[in-house]
Write a structure and sequence with these properties.
The complex is a heterotrimer of chains A (478), B (343) and C (269). By secondary structure, chain A is mostly helical. Chain A is built from 19 helices and 4 strands. The chains are: A mainly alpha (478), B alpha+beta (343), C alpha/beta (269). The complex binds guanosine-5'-triphosphate (GTP) and magnesium ion.
Chain lengths: 478, 343, 269
């Protein structure tokens, strides 16, 4: 045999020259031979009986993707899910609120009084942390417990890839990847998860687009804001409660569709400026429909998703409650910190059709969108000087019904414009801190992370600004 | 509320207009300013080196004139540029023009490697159009450090050819010989495979690129006259002037492949029809091609058009017991043979 | 987590095997590490959940899992760590979305690689199986979704498949927790070395490629004696895989495959 010592360099030079000889066809011919062998093995061991049962797959596929029925069914299902969530969550939400806020809270207060807790500790723990958490639970738990199981059923059935199939043409038009529809769907659960899911997009340019625009999919932390505001301001505009829930689901649906619209617009913008390029070529496997195991799905999605999300909300609500309470109870120059901040933010807030309270709430809620609503309500009590609700600065009052909430907000200077702009701002603002961190982890780039964080707020401020001015202009001229 | 909403609205629109003027793709002020600053001295030297290298590769000489045309600067400027390069030991005067020194050659190889790797990258990974690869690569090649170039090469799996079919010099400066001869050297009726498109004269190159002719394409020469040369491929016919066609390098089609030349594309299958994959278009490159093969679409595979999407664009195809959605743009790149009857 | 064992009565559906103890995420000390590889949407996460009692998200679309997840179980008194991976179509391409799985299968040193396949598309799935068998000797083939295959009138001859591939083949319906016990038994047999696999190796590569591989394998084996899969290394180098090339250059390949550095390696006499 050969006695020459071998070095790594020898091997690599050899390989390099062999590569020139073989040309670029190596991969192709290799794959060809692997599949040939696979086919021969499979042919040996697989037998198909002729009495193949006819499956529904093909008819279902036609129904879900045809020109005539594809999109109507898609929007119909979406609207249906939203309506079921809104109308179904109403009663349990107020029951929970009744229990946690009207019954448990006074009881806790009484307990604290009995053991002689100092007022500040009692305030911080019970009026701050406990109430914030109780609010989050009662606002979030019911809609999430309805929304996620429904969503999971569709996911297990195999409907999502068909949505991506239907929408692909639109994504192609704006230079994005067809699987972005899937990452958006994940974003409706949680934007951070949606951003991670963008790994299924294999072209780096389109993956970045999907990551940056994922925030336009309203995540679970923002659903409650949408549900609540649209039912107390939009839905209550009609008299019958049934019609009200239809109208408010329509409002939520409109916000969602607007989010999709913004996804397309921003994707188009990016693929014509910073991320230039045409839509690359893509493929998507359409799996067979699999009848979901309904009970098991309901059980696991309740346990996994809902409880997990709730847990996260609570973890963020506890410290947020403390912060709010402190902001409201530490005074500098005769006014609480919160009042100072709101005063500073108010002019800008009003300019864009919101107010200082909402802006402050969104700043406090950077760690988690879930706590926006409780914060807004509580800060409103503080500044509107409404008496009879709540028990003092920083207490998250108990509201018996949505009517009360509306009355409170109106006392705080809210108009329909404020509500509409809050719905818009809820869609168009910075991602939560977890998502921002996830974006950084996925892109490893400060530039893209900053863009993904700032672009939506920029758009949100601009949109709210224009809506406010036009709204006022019209109001002026009548 | 202090200001009239109408005034605010006007201010808002004004701000948006200013932003548009500044940042509008391509024509925005920011972009114009950037491209103005592109033509620095180093960039010019590097372009000159590349031009000389390409000329030497195809054994043509470089003169002050050819270089001034290439760089679109005056001959006086070109001469002083050459003098500067000479003083840096990059070029030397020869009997009938200028040639690269060893150092100049090594420098040029580095730039050519960066350029061709970038083109490969842009073609395979970004989805930019064919006529844009070169433009972007012209810009990127100057700002890429040697380490970055090597990282790029690794990422691309050390490719051998750029998307125009030109060999990429290896890191230690070895470059394969030119392949093929000008299309004008063939005769009517010949079957040829395009191996390379020469980019040295950009206006000629861009005509070819605009026609969508790329390396690997199989063409039949239908007509060869001093006025024009006519080719046909699977679907299209191309007419080129001889000067343009002389930039198209080709080799004769290997005999065993000649029967494959006429095929339909996958996108031409109607729902329910079945075809057999024959080969991929050379326009289907890199990751795309590999992904298709991973999905089990390789020459010889039976494939059935299965499902239309609402807009008719992606279609789902049934391949090896699985429904796979492909965009028409990709299905255009897969040649098939239609099968009679259902499979 | 469910830490108790229970008797294998048909009624006890959450306990697919008598000797299985699901350990959830506890995996401090383990005897063997198992990787779950396979095409997307074949039920890897479902198998993972059945073995560990965890609740990895599953969903009927390819690409549900994008990061790797770890869990543990103990079977017949041995501790196992099991890793759920994102789906991959192939180990031969460089698509970034499949990188996590590819890297783990190639460089994670699992003691046993379980390849999960969709019984209704066996041919397509065998592509990946054949590639994995080029890399490792210790593999188990789990043909999942067998309930669906039956529903479609497809039957699979497991014994014959086993004979062709040279590794244990188990038919499972993971969602119904069928065949999980047999799968566990096979994993434990292969892990402990009680069962020695003789995996199928590719035979029909094009001649010029075969020659090139042969040429390189000979050199690679001289530089790295004892390398278990020199053929694969050669193939990857021929395809210009940067990871492999730099592993050869730096000698890292030795550590990757735990080959002791023998003095004077490469000087075969
Ligand atoms: N009928 C049936 N369905 C199954 C079986 N195993 C898994 N499924 C379903 O198949 C789908 C895919 O399962 P997953 O476990 O998510 O598949 P995966 O391989 O992890 O998929 P990726 O993470 O996307 O690669 C889910 O909807 C499961 O419920 C089975 O044995 N029988
Ligand atoms: Mg999975």
């Amino acid at each position: 045999m050969n006695n020459q010592p071998i070095t790594a360099e020898d091997i690599l030079t050899d390989a390099a020259s062999l590569r020139w000889d073989l040309g670029e066809k190596v991969h192709e011919s290799l794959m060809e031979s692997i599949f040939k062998e696979a086919a021969s093995i499979a042919g040996d061991v697989v037998s198909i009986s002729e009495k193949k049962k006819k499956t529904w797959d093909h008819s279902l596929d036609w129904l879900f993707t045809s020109k005539l029925t594809g999109f109507p069914i898609m929007f119909g299902l979406l609207a249906g899910v939203l309506w079921m969530t809104i109308s179904g969550a109403n009663v349990p939400s107020s029951m929970l609120a009744g229990l946690l806020l009207d019954t448990v809270h006074p009881w806790l207060k009484a307990m604290a009084g009995q053991i002689g807790m100092p007022w500040w500790l009692d305030g911080l723990l019970i009026d701050g942390m406990y109430l914030a958490t109780a609010w989050v639970v009662s606002v979030m738990l019911p809609p999430m417990a309805i929304f996620f199981p429904l969503f999971t059923l569709f996911e297990d059935f195999g409907y999502l890839p068909r949505v991506a199939f239907n929408m692909d043409h639109l994504f192609k038009k704006v230079g994005a990847h067809g699987r972005q529809a899937l990452t958006m769907s994940m974003g409706y659960g949680c934007n951070a998860a949606g951003v991670v899911a963008c790994r299924i997009i294999d072209s780096p340019r389109e993956r970045l687009i999907a990551i940056i625009t994922n925030n336009f999919a309203v995540c679970n932390g923002r659903w409650p804001t949408l549900f609540l505001i649209s039912s107390i301001f939009v839905g209550s505009a009609v008299s019958s409660p049934l019609l009200g829930s239809v109208v408010s689901s329509a409002a939520v649906l409109a916000v969602m569709l607007l989010g999709i619209l913004f996804t397309f617009a921003v994707s188009w913008l990016l693929s014509n400026t910073m991320l230039r390029g045409e839509a690359s070529i893509y493929s998507l496997e359409l799996p067979p429909y699999r009848p979901p195991r309904i009970l098991q799905t309901l059980y696991t999605s309740l346990i996994d998703r809902t409880i997990y999300i709730l847990w996260r909300a609570i973890v963020f609500a506890l410290p947020a409650g403390a912060v709010i309470w402190l902001l409201c109870n530490i005074s500098v120059a005769d006014q609480s910190l919160a009042e100072h901040l709101i005063r500073i933010l108010n002019p800008f807030g009003l300019l864009i059709g919101l107010n200082g309270v909402i802006l402050l709430a969104y700043i406090i809620a950077i760690p988690a969108n879930e706590i926006v609503i409780p914060t807004i309500l509580m800060l409103t009590v503080l500044t509107a000087g409404v008496t009879g609700i709540g028990e003092g600065a920083g207490v998250m009052f108990e509201l018996e019904s949505e009517g009360d909430t509306a009355a409170l907000l109106q006392a705080g200077g809210w108009t329909l414009l404020t509500a509409v702009n809050l719905l818009l701002f809820c869609l168009l603002h910075n991602p939560c801190s977890t998502t921002i961190y996830t974006i950084w982890k996925e892109t490893r780039s400060v530039k893209w992370t900053a863009l993904a964080a700032l672009l939506p707020v920029g758009i949100g401020v601009a949109v709210c600004f224009f809506v406010a001015q036009i709204w006022r202009l019209i109001a002026h001229s009548f | 509320m202090t200001m009239h909403p109408g005034i605010l609205l006007a201010i808002g629109l004004g701000v948006i207009a200013i932003l548009c003027i500044l940042f509008w793709p391509r024509r925005g002020l920011v972009n114009l300013w950037r491209s103005l600053h592109l033509n620095t001295r180093r960039t010019r030297i590097e372009h000159a080196l590349k031009h000389m290298f390409n000329n030497e590769y195809i054994q043509q000489k470089t003169t002050v004139k050819s270089l001034s045309v290439k760089l679109s600067i005056s001959q006086r400027h070109t001469a002083s540029l050459l003098a500067r390069m000479e003083s840096r030991g990059l070029v030397k005067k020869t009997r009938d023009g200028y040639g690269l020194t060893e150092e100049g050659n090594a420098y040029a190889l580095r730039i050519v490697r960066a350029h061709r790797l970038w083109e490969r990258y842009l073609a395979d990974e970004t989805g930019l159009r064919g006529d844009e690869w070169h433009r972007y690569a012209e810009r990127l090649e100057h700002s890429t450090s040697p380490e970055q170039v090597e990282a790029l090469a690794d990422q691309l799996g050390q490719p051998l050819y750029d998307p125009h079919g030109a060999p990429i010099p290896s890191a230690d400066g070895v470059i394969g010989p030119p392949m093929g001869q000008p299309a004008t050297a063939f005769a009517t009726g010949d079957l040829i495979v395009v191996t390379r498109i020469d980019k040295e004269q950009e206006h000629l190159y861009s005509q070819i690129a605009a026609e969508g002719i790329v390396p690997g394409m199989q063409l039949r020469i239908l007509e060869m006259s001093p006025q024009r040369i006519r080719f046909s491929s699977q679907q299209n016919e191309y007419v080129l002037a001889p000067v343009v066609a002389s930039r198209l390098m080709a080799i004769p089609l290997p005999a065993e492949k000649t029967e494959e030349i006429c095929n339909d594309t996958l996108s031409s299958l109607k729902i329910g029809e079945t075809g057999k994959v024959v080969r991929f278009s050379p326009n289907c490159r890199g990751a795309e091609r590999r992904r298709l093969m991973d999905l089990g679409i390789i020459p010889g595979t039976l494939i059935r058009a299965d499902l239309n999407s609402p807009f008719g664009d992606p279609k789902a195809y049934f391949v090896r017991e699985t429904s796979i959605a492909l965009r028409n743009k990709l299905a255009d790149l897969i040649y098939i043979e239609k099968m009679k009857g259902a499979a | 987590m469910e830490n108790q064992t229970c008797s294998p009565t048909p009624a006890c559906r959450s306990c697919p095997s008598a000797n299985l103890v699901k350990l959830g995420e506890e995996n401090q000390n383990f005897d063997y590490m198992i990787a779950l590889a396979g095409n997307p949407n074949t039920g890897k996460s479902t198998v993972f959940n059945a073995l560990t009692g965890l609740r990895q998200h599953t969903g009927n679309w390819p690409g549900k899992t994008v990061t790797r997840a770890e869990g543990g179980f103990s079977f017949d008194g041995r501790q196992y760590k099991i890793v759920d991976l994102p789906g991959t179509y192939s180990l031969l391409s460089a698509s970034p979305d499949e990188e996590v799985a590819r890297d783990f299968i190639l460089f994670g040193h699992p003691n046993v690689t379980v390849i999960v396949a969709d019984a209704t598309r066996l041919e397509r799935n065998l592509n990946l199986v054949l590639q994995v068998l080029e890399i490792t000797d210790k593999a188990v083939f789990c043909v999942n979704l067998i309930d669906e295959a039956r529903r479609h009138g497809i039957s699979i001859d497991a014994a014959k498949l086993e004979e062709r591939l040279g590794i244990p083949v188990i038919l499972t319906a993971a969602r119904q927790r069928k065949g999980i016990h047999e799968l566990l038994q096979a994993i434990s047999d292969v892990a402990s070395g009680q069962r020695v696999c003789r995996p199928y190796r590719l035979q029909n590569e094009p001649p010029e490629l075969k020659e090139a591989i042969h040429h390189l394998v000979e050199k690679i084996e001289r530089l790295f004696p004892g390398l278990p899969n020199a053929r694969w290394v050669a193939l990857r180098v021929l395809e210009g895989d940067k990871r492999m090339i730099s592993a050869i250059q730096s000698g890292e390949l030795r550590q990757l495959y735990n080959i002791p550095e023998i003095a004077g390696a490469g000087q075969t006499t």
